[in-house]
Amino acid sequence: MAHESKLKKIHLAARALRLSTTETRNRVLLKAAEFLLEEEETILKANIKDLKKLPSDVSPAFKDRLTLNTQRLSAMAESLRQVADLPDPLDEEGEKRVLRNGLQLKKVRAPLGVIFMIFESRPNVAIEAFSMGFKSGNAMILRGGKESQHTVAVLYKILQTALKQVGLPADTFWGITDPDRKIVNQLLQQKEFIDVVVPRGGEGLINFVVNNSLIPIIKNDRGLCHVYVHDGADLAMAVNIIVNAKTQRPAVCNSMETMLIHSSVAEQLIPMLYQQMQSFNVKWFGDAKTVKILKGSKNVKKASEKNWNTEYLDQIVNCKVVNSVEEAIAHIDKYGSKHSESIVTADASIAQKFQREIDAAVVYWNASTRFTDGFEFGLGGELGISTQKLHVRGPVGLQALTNERWIATGTGQVR
Amino acid sequence: MAHESKLKKIHLAARALRLSTTETRNRVLLKAAEFLLEEEETILKANIKDLKKLPSDVSPAFKDRLTLNTQRLSAMAESLRQVADLPDPLDEEGEKRVLRNGLQLKKVRAPLGVIFMIFESRPNVAIEAFSMGFKSGNAMILRGGKESQHTVAVLYKILQTALKQVGLPADTFWGITDPDRKIVNQLLQQKEFIDVVVPRGGEGLINFVVNNSLIPIIKNDRGLCHVYVHDGADLAMAVNIIVNAKTQRPAVCNSMETMLIHSSVAEQLIPMLYQQMQSFNVKWFGDAKTVKILKGSKNVKKASEKNWNTEYLDQIVNCKVVNSVEEAIAHIDKYGSKHSESIVTADASIAQKFQREIDAAVVYWNASTRFTDGFEFGLGGELGISTQKLHVRGPVGLQALTNERWIATGTGQVR
Q1: Cβ-based contacts of A391 with chain B (< 8 Å)
Q2: What residues are paired with A407 via a beta bridge?
Q3: Which residue of B lies nearest to A90 if distances are taken between CA atoms?
Q4: Closest CA to A133 of A111, A162, A152
Q5: Per the CB < 8 Å rule, is B415 touching A244?
Q6: Counting one residue from A and one from B, how many pairs have CB atoms under 8 Å apart?
Q7: Chain A residues whose beta carbon lies within 8 Å of the beta carbon of residue B409
């Protein structure tokens, strides 16, 4: 079996970690924060090496995500200190029951075990993922995008040193520097040793993991989010929410891709939205009614089926006129990605219908979809946003990296 | 795409079900209970047809699980009424937060959506699975073992009639009668329409589903459970617990397969255990020390590596002498199936170490492993026992067939 001896050691390290104290784990995080700042020169040198190797045709956004600098390094160190400050999710006691025979049951929070996280070429994600997973008592296997290999190699070394200095086994953490993708496929088969896989990245990576993993997954899938404006909504609020949801940071998964506008407010609202978005040079794709309302405007094209289904992650938006909340719900049910959806309305019963019937991780009433984020939600960070139905929906915080198991205490009970 | 139009209808039915009331869902369960009794003759006739078709070499246990009679039918009807009586897990509100900007967040419990359950040739499981899944607001796809096809076909029809009489769409439930296994493989690819797969049965079925499913799984895997008796334990209690855990119903997953006995009590305890188990004609496999202690006893053989790893589900047991709680924990970590483990000791600190370090769904102190069961735990039933790390550990009750998503209510908040 590939990597068996290494995986056995990690499994043992995860067992030892179950017994570690909050204070020990926090000390590792604080040490790592120190070393990040001390090793700035080495890290930035490695980062320049990675940047120099980039093919000339990568997007500026890709390059930006890979780039580190003094400011970003201190933000990473600060995030480690913040995670150290968070309450420990482990050993938290949940539901308690006493059976009629006197057997005492309680649910107690425990680590997941060994987490394998696969992520894009964003060095800061290595630090975030380690800090969240380790804080919640898990042994971590990290594998970043190959374009960041020199940078993450230095970061991995720093994490190892921090572990060693605090006296934890080095096998508590495995940072994979092998750029060959084969190793990912091999590890996805190792369900005896790896408890959970967390892929984070583009659709290609997610599909690869879903198609090949024998290990349960916490999926950070795409965000195709909608805002629906109902009949009688406060139009100024609607404009404010929609423009924010689309333009404030279009490259993230909680930004909005499609607006659904009730026909009774379409004539008035759509030109307001169009005008406001022109300062961000937003390109529009609209249904026939939208195109008609915006006749003569240069940044509007007719939407095709493909548009409704596209996560642009860019200053591009879809607009559709609908005749009812039911039509809006049906559209979202068909095209949404179970991430974040919002309704703008003054009618509480319509809002409740929408919030109840829409099957998404977060359903907003009169707020921007942009709040779906572990920091914004007060979870102290996130390993991503889950769009799946099992285990966790929405921001994946510390608690989502643990589970609840039963501890039963008796006095000799038998059946 | 295979079965696409059917699956689309089920998806729509699941959406409608999200809006159904507790009372409507309970009425379906009570109707089904009525029909089960009314249709006794038809059901038993179909059951006899199935029984007659059984190959002559099936085990008596297999045949017993397939067999229905008046008493079993009324137990099935009673279980439907009991599930109707359980509190509705839906719409339960969990964690609440108010962000600094005034945005109100709360977690609200929702159905998983569409659940595909695959089970062995046990007709009562069809009723149990439908009642638990449907009560918690899920559309259900059921596929029982082919040997039960005539029996479950009648049961499926009863469930359909109950749905129709209460006015719910027939597509809320799909009972698959096609005996060709191809359909299972086809459905395991349909991640757009099916939210969760629940396989229940032998290792072959579980592995088939794990290897082929693109859909997240709630796994009901094997139970290889241990009882460890520590130095200084109350030996009468130890005998009582071990004999119960092994012999009371050996064919179920929460029965014990291996005893681990501390060397300081082995000489005294092992002969007591052996003698007690002889009335159940239990066959023993022991390590060298056990074999030596029981020298001359006829029902003892030397255990091989394979024995420690076998879920007997029969009156067969393994016994190993260990020198410490650490050795017991290491053995369980190597061979256990993360189901149920127990320690017998008078020492609270040893018990706590064992309960903390053992990574299983339920860890007992001074009690039999046989309590790991949805009814025993007071969950009102179970769809199985989960041995996985994500979403649910131990008995899968109504709550485990739902998830928590975020409902956010604002007054125009933007980032």
Answers
A1: 390-391, 403
A2: A106, B363
A3: B356
A4: A111
A5: yes
A6: 197
A7: 351, 364-367
Q: Given an 8 Å threshold on Cβ–Cβ distance, is B359 in contact with A388? A: no
Nearest chain B Cα to A236, which residue?
B412
Residue from the list B99, B113, B240 with its beta carbon closest to the beta carbon of A389 = B113
Q: Are A128 and A155 in contact (CB under 8 A)?
A: no
Query: Is the pLDDT at B351 greater than 90, yes or no?
Result: yes
Q: Is A385 on the interface with B (CB under 8 A)?
A: no
CB A319 within 8 A of CB A333: no
What is this structure's pTM? 0.95
A76-134 pLDDT, tens digit per residue, is 999 999 999 999 999 899 999 999 999 999 999 999 999 999 999 999 999 999 999 99
Residue B191 contacts A where some CB pair is shorter than 8 Å: yes
Question: What would the two tokens of residue B55 be?
Answer: 């190959």
Residue B325's alpha-carbon distances to B24, B121, B347, in angstroms, are 52, 41, 11
A211 neighbourhood in chain B, CB within 8 Å: 214
The total of other beta-carbon atoms located within 10 Å of residue B120's CB is: 17
Q: How many other CB atoms are found less than 10 A from the CB of residue A212?
A: 13
CA distance A351 to B290: 68
Q: What is the Cα–Cα distance from A133 to A212, expressed in whole angstroms? A: 23
Q: Which of residues 289-348 of A touch B (CB under 8 A)?
A: 333
A297-344, pLDDT tens digit by residue?
999 999 999 999 999 999 999 999 999 999 999 999 999 999 999 999
Query: What's the CA angle centered on B316, arms B311 and B317, to 5 degrees?
Result: 80
Yes or no, beta carbons of B391 and A388 under 8 Å apart = no
B61 band by pLDDT with thresholds 50, 70 and 90: confident
The type of residue at B211 is N
Residue B60: per-residue pLDDT: 87
Residue A408 has its nearest CB partner, among B216, B367, B407, at: B367
Q: How near does any CA of chain B get to the CA of A363, in Å? A: 5
CA distance A167 to chain B (A): 19
What is the distance in angstroms between the Cα of A259 and the nearest Cα belonging to chain B?
Answer: 16
Residues 227-286 of B with CB under 8 A from A: 234, 237, 240-241, 244-245, 248
What structural domains and CATH numbers belong to chain A?
A: 4-220+396-409 (3.40.605.10), 225-371 (3.40.309.10)
Residue of A nearest to B218 (CA): A390
Label each residue of chain A as H, E or C.
CCCHHHHHHHHHHHHHHHCCCHHHHHHHHHHHHHHHHHCHHHHHHHHHHHHHHCCCCCCHHHHHHHCCCHHHHHHHHHHHHHHHHCCCCCCCEEEEEECCCCCEEEEEEEECCEEEEECCCCHHHHHHHHHHHHHCCCEEEEECCHHHHHHHHHHHHHHHHHHHHHCCCHHHEEECCCCCCHHHHHHCCCCCCCCEEEEECCHHHHHHHHHHCCCCECCECCCCEEEEECCCCCHHHHHHHHHHHHHCCCCCCCCEEEEEEEHHHHHHHHHHHHHHHHCCCCEEEECHHHHHHCCCCCCEEECCHHHHCCCCCCCEEEEEEECCHHHHHHHHHHHCCCCEEEEECCCHHHHHHHHHHCCCCEEEEEECHHHCCCCCCCCCCCCCEECCCCCCCEECCHHHHEEEEEEEEEEEECC
Q: A414 vs B195: CB contact, 8 Å cut-off?
A: no
Chain B partners of A388 at a C-beta cutoff of 8 Å?
Answer: 216
B196, B237, B409: residue with CB nearest A390: B196
- B45 to B49, B65, B69, B153: CA distances (angstroms): 6, 16, 10, 12
What average pLDDT does range A254-269 have in this prediction?
A: 98
pLDDT of residue B202: 84
